[in-house]
Amino acid sequence: MRKYIDYMKIGIKEHMVYSSSIWATFLSKVVYLYMQFALWNALFASNAEKSLALNHEETIRYIIVATVLSTIMECNVIGWINSEIQTGNIANQLIRPMDFRTMIFSKHFGTTLIKTVLYCIPLCVVTGVAFHKPIVCDGQLGFGFVSIILAFIIQFLYSLIIGLMAFWLIVTWPLNMLLAAIYKLLSGSWIPVAMFPDLLGKINAFLPFRAIYSIPVTIITTPMSQENILRNLIVQIVWIVILYIVMTVTWRIGKKKLIVQGG
């Protein structure tokens, strides 16, 4: 257990190496949040007569929470695995007396912890000061935190599956770029899933992406019945089970196909 804690510390230290990068990242997130706020205000101002799935205030609350949540949902597992394979360091990682996947999770978890402290909490303060209306449903925050944890696991498993595919594809960045665009759209990170056209919404219901952003953000910002909340949490748990099985199969096949190069 101690060795995994050490990797968690490595993830924290690596992210804190350059203080200028930390400030630049935080300011970029503030600017992005302001751009989202301005964009949606303009869209609702120009379409005031049209009826949308979410009203102006509901949409702004959704975008604020989704932007804050994005600071802890970012995952660099795919890029890290690609780099290790291309440099040949993957051979050293695999012979270490620890589970490769747990090691990656520990390092990613450490990075997420420091991101929560450096970005998520300050962004919550900034939005609380700038947006003078209630943003979250206090009675659902407990369920919201549980949903965020489940979403974090889904995001990690999804990223790990794509990263492990590099064991036989060698380079996965073209696939990653394609899937990242699809993921950003369908997860509800950019646009609330409730605003999707009917056909796209029905297709998306059978994909794991909405379980990463849409479900936790909706639970946090929109009043829901306890039955509906539990139904959404079950959806997330089901996707965790499915993705874990896919990840395990990908891992077993990938170890046999891996070709170490570089180094």
Structure, described:
- This protein has 263 residues and is mainly α.
- Helix content is 75%, strand content 0%.
- It has helices at residues 2-15, 19-46, 56-73, 77-87, 90-94, 100-130, 141-164, 166-169, 173-186, 198-204, 214-221, 226-257.
- Helix 1 packs across helix 6, helix 3 (56-73) runs antiparallel to helix 6 (100-130) and helix 3 packs across helix 11.
- The protein is globular.
- The mean pLDDT is 83.
- InterPro entries: ABC-2_transporter-like (IPR010390).
- Keywords: Membrane, Transmembrane, Transmembrane helix.
- Pfam families: ABC2_membrane_6.
Detail the topology: elements first, then pairings.
Blueprint: H1 2-15, H2 19-46, H3 56-73, H4 77-87, H5 90-94, H6 100-130, H7 141-164, H8 166-169, H9 173-186, H10 198-204, H11 214-221, H12 226-257
Helix pairs in contact: 1-6, 2-3, 2-6, 3-6, 3-11, 4-7, 7-11, 7-12
Key terms:
263 residues; mainly alpha; 12 helices; globular; ABC-type uncharacterized transport system, permease component
Rg over CA atoms: 20 Å
Low-pLDDT ranges: none
Q: Tell me the total number of β-strands.
A: 0
Major β-sheet profile:
none
Number of domains: 1
Written as H for each helix and E for each strand, in order along the chain, the element string is HHHHHHHHHHHH
